[in-house]
Amino acid sequence: MNSAKVRLNIITAILTVVTIIHISPIVMVLMNSFKANTFVKTATFAIPRGNMFVGWDNYIKGFTFGNYPIVKAIGYSATITILSTALILLCTSMAAWYIVRVNSAVCKIVYYLFVFSMVVPFQMVMYPLAKTADSLHLSTPFTIPIIYLGFGAGMATFMFTGFIKTLPLEIEEAAAIDGCGALRTFFLIILPMLKPTLISVGILEIMWIWNDYLLPYLVLDINEYRTIPIHIQYLQGSYGTVDLGATMALIVLSIIPVIIFYLTCQKYIIKGVAAGAVKG
Fold it and tell me: SS3 for 124?
């Protein structure tokens, strides 16, 4: 056996172990979603069978628990995720195109400010952010996408900028000769060519926004507007007791849409990330 094959086997073994480590929490949540609440605590790692197995009871209980409808929470999560992702993709792609093509000193400063925003921890700004959002009346599912735009713009602009630098300028010059203005050039020529990066950034933003707990919790009125993560946190009975079985069931249901979307679009992720990092 040559050294190259040995290295390949070692890398395969390491990646297999890493994959198992990453998948095991999902498997544990899935198994515990079919167990009675008592056994979730006492037999966490056991396979659900016998008197442990409760079938779909936890899923039914999760949908019917409390006085806040789960369908309403799903609707708010979907609204926030779709609006925020669409706003981030549109605004940052246009900003990146302007930064690359104008390439002035001001544009470079703005670009580096976008990049710098990626390293600012959310915990540093969350309290003044909550107060500002309240004073500007951004505390609804239809206005919180503006806040998500601020936090998601850094990474998205960085990736779009790197990809746009690889696009030939001659195509835009030909469009200008044919009479296309800036908006028509962007929407008819640039935006279709950004498809790999659009999908890659979209997947990353959707996974972040759909699963985000802290920002909606700080900004939204949780008595009126609850996203799925907030609703799961309030899955409590009397005296603060938590039904872990029903909680696990709702967690499984909350990650299914993201997994389906990710598996559907995964072929664009590496392509888009690689293209966006060529000339960041």
Answer: helix
